[in-house]
Write a structure and sequence with these properties.
heterodimer, A: alpha+beta, 3-stranded antiparallel beta sheet, B: Ferritin, 9 helices, 57% helix, globular
Chain lengths: 74, 214
């Protein structure tokens, strides 16, 4: 194969979806891609097996974590 | 089918899955298109090597990922633009039936565009461009005629312009010998798919692995 280099830089995206309008969004998985467009294409290709009405991706870096109850400050 | 051949050979696992998914989409699209043709009274063509009107780019399996990327980014976009022109035309069967196809193709376009940015696929892209332009055809040919009748909502110039816009590039300026173009198969280069591809399309390749009497 003449293509040795894969991507220079990638980021991880969390994938969320809901099956019906009434259902809450659930995390269904994650994809790794160099940009939003490819991440969208990958999320749809990978998580399209089940019926869904809404799917969205969020860069993992954009997720802000809160301290768990009782967790000490790092 | 060429997409499917890459479902275990793409550079990343995600791209493998996308290749399989896009291949499945396109099989579905072919079924819808053939079904629409039948409904519009077009007779079935015999299943023979010479009857396949594919672009030369699809004659042989791709041996390099850049070939996949160029097909995905350029050729797939050209086909989709034509579908869009049909969906926007005045034939009711096509207007109603091709919408889902266009929705799925949006993901193919994003996949193709992103990989085009990433890959050094210039040689393959030139070839895919050429095949796309030849496939769409010359100005004042059948596509413009159908556009004139309202069957296609876009003519040759507009199809080319939108393709350039989507791919963010222009075809190489090598002249095209329109006189040598086969108007039915929409290609200049003679030949067609090889025996192996044909046997796979006809399902003969799968039959070899079936137990006797099945």
């Amino acid at each position: 194969m003449g293509f040795a280099r894969v991507h220079d830089e990638v980021q991880e995206y969390e994938v969320f979806a809901r099956k019906t309008r009434l259902e809450p969004l659930r995390q269904v998985g994650a994809v790794v891609a160099p940009d939003d467009e490819l991440a969208m294409a990958y999320a749809r290709a990978t998580y399209d097996e089940e019926r869904w009405v809404e799917m969205m991706i969020v860069p993992k870096a954009a997720v802000i974590q809160l301290w768990a109850p009782g967790e000490a400050e790092a | 089918m060429r997409y499917a051949e890459w479902c275990i050979a793409a550079p990343t696992l995600e791209a493998d899955i996308a290749a399989a998914a896009m291949g499945l989409d396109d099989i579905g699209h072919s079924r819808v298109l053939y079904g629409s043709l039948r409904e519009l009274g077009e007779p079935d063509v015999p299943d023979e090597p010479g009857s396949y009107a594919n672009v030369p780019y699809l004659d042989r399996p791709w041996t390099d990922w850049t070939a996949f990327v160029a097909a995905n980014g350029v050729l797939d976009s050209a086909f989709t633009l034509m579908i869009e022109a049909l969906a926007g035309g005045n034939v009711e069967v096509l207007r109603s039936r091709l919408k889902k196809m266009l929705q799925e193709e949006r993901y193919h376009a994003m996949h193709g565009r992103s990989w085009l940015r990433e890959s050094r696929a210039a040689v393959a892209v030139d070839e895919a461009w050429r095949d796309s332009i030849v496939w769409i055809g010359p100005e004042d040919g059948d596509v413009d005629e159908l556009h004139g009748k309202g069957i296609l909502s876009l003519g040759v110039r507009e199809l080319r312009r939108r393709l350039e816009e989507q791919v963010s590039g222009a075809p190489a300026s090598t002249p095209i010998d329109w006189k040598a173009r086969d108007p039915v198969r929409r290609r200049i280069v003679p030949g067609g798919i090889d025996e192996l591809t044909l046997s796979m399309l006809q399902g003969l390749a799968e039959k070899r692995y079936m137990p006797a009497g099945a």
